[in-house]
Amino acid sequence: MTETAAERGLPLPARLWVYQAERFPLLKTAVLCAVFAAAGISVSAHLAGRPLPGLATFAVAAFVTTALFFLLRVADEVKDADDDRRYRPERPVPRGLVSLPLLVGLGAGAAAAAVAAAAALSAGLVVFLAIVLGFMVLMAVEFLVPRWLKARPVAYLVSHMAVMPLIDLYVTATEWWPAAGAPPRGIALFLALSFVNGCVLEIGRKTWAPASERPGVESYSRLWGPRRAVLVWLACVVAAALLAAVTGRLLGAPLAIAAAIAVAALACAAVAARFARRPDTAGETALDAASGVWVLVCYAALGALPIAFAGAA
């Protein structure tokens, strides 16, 4: 019996466990989403000069964010189904580990649970969540212009990363909607940061060593070359650092946030320099890891340091 046939014989929970390990590492994603959600709530409250909301707000925001990121994975599976079948047959869907209808069904369940959780916190939040979900549906069908987008990778990047500030709009709304019904001044900077950090993650995970490139599989390293791609990635990190630093000033902890961001940015620069000199698979792995660490540090600094300084004041 082949490995694929043996996998197909596994019970559904076991197959889903294998799927999450390969395509949606649940623990890692949940931790990142919790930090992301907590930062959005903290930033919104501090910009408005309000105390932090209760634990229920943090729990709902983290749960909904995790569900939304799972839906992004399902959307990727849907829109990439043909390319995966042709060029990446080892992935879970084309090799038969799980089916696309199963994932779509799980995604629908996750969406329903997210709507229920949002409504339990505040009915008005369902409107913001509906905006995100509607945008994700458009993403899954490539905004009805798949060929046009595929021929224009930068337009593809911008159109798809626009979902990040929409998710953050929902996250921050869990704080400001029940409290004031309107976002605090300065929140646009934080939403812009979410867009740029989305670009950091996306370019970082699709900038590969020449040995990792595959026929029919698009990457930014194939589009721009590995050295130019990593420079674009680093430029996004720098842009995100500037946005984070300005947001830090508004939050009342400019020096601490700037210091944390500067250290992380310098580490990213070292990773980028190493990959530019020697674009191998080790550098590719480091670049992907650095993208995640950068985003984690960025949101952790913005979410936690204003709280620490407010407590010390």
Please describe what this structure looks like.
With 313 residues, the protein is mostly helical. It has two domains: 156 residues, Tetracycline Repressor, domain 2; 128 residues. The chain has 15 helices and no strands. The longest helix is centred in the last third of the chain and has 32 residues. It is globular, with a radius of gyration of 20 Å. 38% of the residues are buried.
Low-confidence runs:
none
* CATH class category name of the largest domain: Mainly Alpha
Mean pLDDT: 93
The backbone outline, from C-alpha atoms, is globular
Structural class: mainly alpha
Share in β-strands: under 5%
Distance between the termini: 66 Å
According to DSSP, the number of beta strands is 0
Helical coverage, percent range: over 70%
Number of domains: 2
- What oligomeric state do the depicted chains represent? single chain
The arrangement of helices and strands along the chain is HHHHHHHHHHHHHHH
Give structural attributes.
mainly alpha; single chain; 313 residues
Short description:
This protein has 313 residues and is mainly α. It has helices at residues 3-8, 12-23, 26-48, 55-79, 81-87, 100-121, 125-140, 146-150, 153-161, 163-179, 187-205, 220-224, 226-251, 254-277, 281-312.
